Please model this.
Amino acid sequence: MDTLIAMRSFARVVETGSFSAVAKEEDTTQATISKRVAALESELGARLLVRGSRVHQLTETGQSYYERVVNILGEIEEAESEARSLTTTPRGKLRVTVPTMFGSLYVAPVISEFLATYPEIQLDLKFSEKMLDLVEEGIDVAIRLGELKDSSMIARRLGYDDLILVASPAYLKKHSVPQQPADLQRHNCLVYTLSERGTVWSFSNQPADTAVHVVGNFQCDTGFGLMEMLLANAGIAFMPTWSAAPYIESGQLVHVMKDYYRRYPISAVYPQNRYIPLKTKCFMDYMEKTIKTDPVLTAVG
Model:
């Protein structure tokens, strides 16, 4: 038995709660992962996991062993990362998650160039609107839009953007142009359901009492869905400048109430550790450069 491989598999089973998830990560079978953990238990002469049909519970011995194993694996990974960094050649599989619309418009277009610059990196890119658990999903870095609350992660600020109010000319011609927050209550407001703001829209540069509770007949969990409804003359939405700017320039959308906006950070988030793998650092550096040289985002602020 390769003890180090078994230890890594055991740790990931604990973190993901699933033998099958670890098997998928390691491109092997569930039976192989189960055998590794069983062999580890046999070697130690102690049971580490109480296996269930859906949930696997750590034994007292397993909990203590896991805590030591995580530290050991961290030391090994740090030593490997430092050794690799000396070659100044980032390599290995890099797992990244990005919001669907931002990822499509800002990340996907530069991936080919990124991989050409770092040919020894194998990128696994996941598009998702949800705040995936980076440790459980085995993700190296996530691009997040908005204020961050997860203190167990480390964040690196890449830039800023504004949420602005937009609608189509046809919609505004039919329903009038809002001038102040209270006017929004008479409009069909399209809502992004994954936002913590929900149906209460507030503004970074205005007093708290200007926040307004909006109503509308449509909500969805993707920016693409909101954009389609805006272009179909369905209502008003709070949209990121980076997504709305091309349509404003073409005249398909109108930026209304320009004195009212919501500023938010664009961040790279990664699990806590005492080192940053070179592949992760290179990706974050690349995305920061992309964001800070973008004409729309550099205009914010």
